[in-house]
Amino acid sequence: MAEAQFSVAFAGPLVSLQDAGRPGHLRFGVPASGAMDRRSLALANIAVGRPLGAPVIEVSLGGLTLDCTEGAVSLAITGGGFVIELDGQTVAPWGVLTIRAGQRLVVRRGHWGAWAYLAFAGDLDAPRWLGSASTIAASGLGGGMVKTGGTLKVRDTATLPDRRMPLPVTARPRAHLHVVPGPQTRCFRPEALEALLSGSWHVTPQGDRMGVRLKGPALELGDALQIPSEPILRGSIQVAGDGVATVLMADHQTTGGYPKIATMLDDDLDGFAQLRPGDALDFARLDPDAAVEQARFHAARLEAYFEHAKRAARL
């Protein structure tokens, strides 16, 4: 069985092994985790013939440098518009390339996007915890953080023709975001929701896989800080006592007592994750019925897109 091995020459903060996540464990205090940009993870796997939710390397803006020390394997790179270099030669992202023993792959921040994904044409050796290789960044449980000086192994490898993906890039940052008010709008002063919907917002540097703080108008609370702790979902816009809004992401805590003024439409979350510190954004209101309708429409469209991607990958 063919194998490829890698030495991690450099890994920036929050570079980790991720897959489709571990849903169903929130009641035990375990976040679902998974990719920050789930669509890009799936498309990287499709490009190299792997299951949509197979383990990949998620690369942050800090970047990643891998030295192939043994074997050969093809890999796909999706996500943001990162700069990709193979042995010092720039190659296009959103494509498939092959790396062989003695070669170096560099992934570093480019002009846009916050996360990139590397999927291998083979079985990436990634420890599972509760059935998933997704890494919880705060604890390291799951496949694990990718760290400088570490090693990676890919089993049952294959090499594929180098090519660009014959599909449009879908990982563009999304700055116009849809939200459903609640579930605790009653805990805010009456003008807070209007401030959320009409205010000027920017992503701050205070963000990680757990959540991203926003810069914008203060969302003033009413009698809100005595509410009981309750379950939390990815995409919740939570507001602490200082009035600062935080969008909760893949590694969000499972319960919390701060009120949530609104919840972002799930289809917008991958695009939101690709925003960088300093990027501007705004929110548009949806009522629950419209949100359900949009969610079903986007889910059907995404399923069709994935099927198209699978057919294109087989050509």
Outline the structure in words.
By secondary structure, the protein is an alpha+beta fold. It folds into 2 domains: 3-164, no CATH class; 176-296, Beta Barrel (Cyclophilin). Helices cover 17% and strands 36% of the residues. The protein contains 4 helices and 20 strands. It has helices at 38-47, 192-198, 266-273, 288-314, and strands at residues 3-11, 16-18, 56-59, 64-70, 72-86, 89-91, 95-100, 104-120, 123-124, 151-155, 163-164, 176-181, 201-207, 211-215, 230-231, 236-239, 245-248, 255-256, 260-264, 280-285. Strands 1, 2, 3, 4, 5, 6, 7, 8, 9, 10 and 11 form an 11-stranded antiparallel sheet that branches. A 7-stranded mixed β-barrel has the order 12-19-16-17-14-13-20. A hairpin with a 2-residue loop joins β5 (72-86) and β6 (89-91). α1 (38-47) packs parallel to α4. The longest helix has 27 residues, at 288-314. It is elongated. The model has no long low-confidence stretch (mean pLDDT 94). Pfam families: CT_A_B (PF02626).
Structural descriptors:
315 residues; alpha+beta; Cyclophilin; eleven-stranded antiparallel β-sheet; seven-stranded mixed beta barrel; 20 strands; elongated; ATP-binding; hydrolase activity; nucleotide-binding
- The helix/strand class is alpha+beta
Cα-to-Cα separation, first versus last residue: 25 Å
Instruction: Give the number of helices.
Output: 4
Please provide the count of β strands: 20
Average pLDDT level: 94
Please estimate the helix content. 10-25%
Cα radius of gyration in angstroms: 20 Å
- Please state the overall shape, judged from the principal axes of the Cα atoms: elongated
**Parts with pLDDT < 50 across at least 5 consecutive residues:** none
Largest sheet: 11 strands, antiparallel
Can you write the helix and strand succession as a string?
EEHEEEEEEEEEEHEEEEEEEHEH
Number of domains: 2
Beta-strand residue fraction = 35-45%
Pfam families: CT_A_B (PF02626)
Domain Carboxyltransferase: 27-301
Protein name: Allophanate hydrolase
GO molecular function, one term: hydrolase activity
